[in-house]
Amino acid sequence: MAKRSVKAAVIGAGMSGLVAARELRREGHQVVVFERGSEVGGTWVYDPRVESDPLGLDPAREVVQSSMYKSLRVNLPRPIMGFSDYPFGANQSAGVDPRQFPGHEEVLRFLRGFAEDFGVVELVRFEHEVVRVERVVEGRNDEWVVEWRTRDGEACSEVFEAVVVCNGKYTEPRLAEFPGRSTWGGEQIHSHNYRVPQPYKDK
Q1: What whole-number distance in Å separates Cα of residue 78 and Cα of residue 81?
Q2: What are phi and psi of 132, to 5 degrees?
Q3: Average per-residue pLDDT in the chain?
């Protein structure tokens, strides 16, 4: 019996989205990857910008996707950062940090190489932010409408037979509520908006 090929949407071109897209295509499915940013890598794409609201509470703020700080190193050693058929560092001949725990720049190079080596980049619709996913017919799980918005503000939708959500979880800050937080007059910042230590020197 022949395998059924479906039209599948993958939301997010970070580590999980890239692997999901590769595996779906390997199985013969038609894959479209939606990525709101301009490159692959997801959370591993460093952005020096921070949001205007350091706590991330203002719904009108311009949202900065990255939560990464400039000196970040991963908390996993190289041997377990890669994939079984694509080890970490497989595509990196120069600029490899000899330390056991790589920096974010090296992780991003690894992901870019993975996406290029397996032809996943050609599946990605960059600067396409998914704003809605729902069943076409209530009670059925074989057709989903995916609606997206481009950076230019154009809104479109398309029907898919499967949807894989790989959009990460680090863009929206979560704040602990505790007595005195709202009345304390000192500076408060969520780690989502931390990038470099210089602004805090001598404080």
Answers
A1: 5
A2: -160, 140
A3: 91
Alpha helices in 57-175 (DSSP H): 104-117
Q: Is residue 40 a contact partner of residue 115, using CB atoms and an 8 Å limit?
A: yes
> What six digits make up the tokens of 54?
């350091």
- What lies within 8 Å, CB to CB, of 2 at 6+ separation is none
CA separation for the pair 33, 79 (Å, rounded): 28
Largest CA distance in the chain: 70
Q: How far is CA 92 from CA 55, 87, 103, 126, in A?
A: 37, 11, 14, 24
Contact 148, 157 (CB under 8 A): yes
The separation between CA 142 and the C-alpha centre of its own chain, rounded to angstroms, equals 26
| pLDDT of res. 170 | 74
Alpha helix segments (H runs only) across the chain = 15-26, 104-117
pLDDT in tens, 129-174: 999 999 998 877 789 999 999 999 999 999 999 999 998 877 788 8
How many CB atoms lie under 10 A from the CB of residue 177?
6
Helix, strand, or coil (residue 197): coil
pTM to 2 decimals?
0.89
Residue 181: both structure tokens together? 């937080």
H-type helices in 64-188, by residue range? 104-117
Q: How far is it, in rounded angstroms, from Cα 7 to Cα 101?
A: 38
Q: Please check the confidence at residue 35 and state whether its pLDDT lies above 60.
A: yes
- Per-residue pLDDT at 159: 97
Q: Which residue has the tokens 């703020």?
A: 61
